[in-house]
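Saturday, quiet lab. Running sequence design on the C-alpha cells for the scaffold JK sent over.
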C-alpha cells in the first residue's frame, strides 16, 4: 500500500457544477464530489481495479460524466453526484481510445474524438454514435457547443497541418468551413 502524502499533486481534472455548489475531482483514477462549502467529500466511484478519467458535470442536476475502462475499452459513463448509483455506460463499441468529450448544454448529445482521427457525435435519443468527420491528423478539444445545442465548433486540420475552424449543424448533419487554413486557427468558442 502506498501512502499518498500530497493528494493534490495527483489531481488530473477538476470541474465546477452548473450551480457552482460542487466540484468534481479526478485523482489517481478515482472520482470525488466535493461541496464548495467544504463539507464531506463523496467518492463517486467505489469500484476498484477500474480507471476513471476526465470527470465533468453533465447537467444542472449534477450528474457526472467520465471516461472509464470498466467495459474493457475506454467509454463514456455517467453516474450521480454522490455515488449512490452504479455508473452506467453511455457510449459503446469504441474502436479506439476516447481522448476528449463535451456534452451539449441540453444534455442530448456528446461530441468526442477518438485517437484514430475521428470526431464522433453521440445522440441520447438514438443511443448511438456516428462519425462527424475524419482526417489524417486527429482532433483536439476543446470543442464548443452553441447555447441552443444545435452547432458544434471544432478545429480541423488541413493538408499543411494548419488548423482551421468548422461548424457542424447537429440537426442538418452538415459542416461549414468558417476560417482558412492559410493561418493557424484553434480553440473555437461561442460567445
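Result came back. Writing it out in full:
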Amino acid at each position: 500500500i502506498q501512502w499518498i502524502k500530497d493528494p493534490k499533486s495527483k489531481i488530473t481534472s477538476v470541474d465546477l457544477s452548473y450551480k457552482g455548489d460542487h466540484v468534481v475531482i479526478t485523482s489517481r483514477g478515482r472520482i470525488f464530489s466535493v461541496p464548495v462549502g467544504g463539507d464531506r467529500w463523496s467518492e463517486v466511484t467505489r469500484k476498484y481495479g477500474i480507471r476513471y478519467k476526465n470527470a465533468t458535470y453533465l447537467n444542472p442536476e449534477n450528474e457526472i460524466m467520465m471516461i472509464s475502462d470498466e467495459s474493457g475499452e475506454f467509454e463514456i459513463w455517467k453516474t450521480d453526484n454522490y455515488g449512490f448509483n452504479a455508473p452506467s455506460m453511455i457510449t459503446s463499441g469504441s474502436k479506439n481510445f476516447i481522448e476528449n468529450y463535451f456534452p451539449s448544454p441540453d444534455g442530448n448529445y456528446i461530441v468526442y474524438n477518438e485517437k484514430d482521427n475521428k470526431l464522433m457525435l453521440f445522440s441520447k435519443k438514438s443511443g448511438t454514435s456516428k462519425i462527424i468527420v475524419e482526417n489524417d491528423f486527429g482532433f483536439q478539444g476543446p470543442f464548443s457547443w452553441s447555447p441552443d445545442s444545435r452547432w458544434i465548433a471544432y478545429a480541423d486540420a488541413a493538408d499543411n497541418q494548419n488548423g482551421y475552424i468548422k461548424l457542424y449543424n447537429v440537426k442538418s448533419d452538415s459542416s461549414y468551413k468558417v476560417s482558412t487554413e492559410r493561418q493557424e486557427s484553434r480553440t473555437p468558442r461561442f460567445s
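Notes for JK: The mean pLDDT is 90. The radius of gyration is 17 Å. Ask whether to fix the surface positions before the next round.
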